[in-house]
Write a structure and sequence with these properties.
With 106 residues, the chain is mostly helical. The chain has one domain (3-21, 36-105). Helix content is 50%, strand content 0%. Helix 1 (3-17) packs antiparallel against helix 4 (86-105).
Length: 106
Amino acid sequence: MTEAERQRKHRALLAAVDPPAASDEAWREGAVCAGVHFDVFFPEVNSPTSNRAAKTICAGCPVREPCREYAIATHQNEGVWGGMATAERRALRRLRLREARRLVAL
């Protein structure tokens, strides 16, 4: 593998694990959750039932994906973002990391 190929794969690995946080957060303007009390998205107890209301709101949101990617990129460790709870976002990040490592190893 050439140095250029190795660097390209390394950049792909980093992008898969830590997508760049969008400095433009215009996606927030289209969020269905705007105006909903923050307690819905940051419940006291982090459980499937406590996150249900937030996930229901997110399910119909047109900016669910950029919201989720923002949370992953900026390491949001609390709350429901883009329809995913903290543990779900961590699992997605680990999955992306495994897949990126697999691709780099090819």
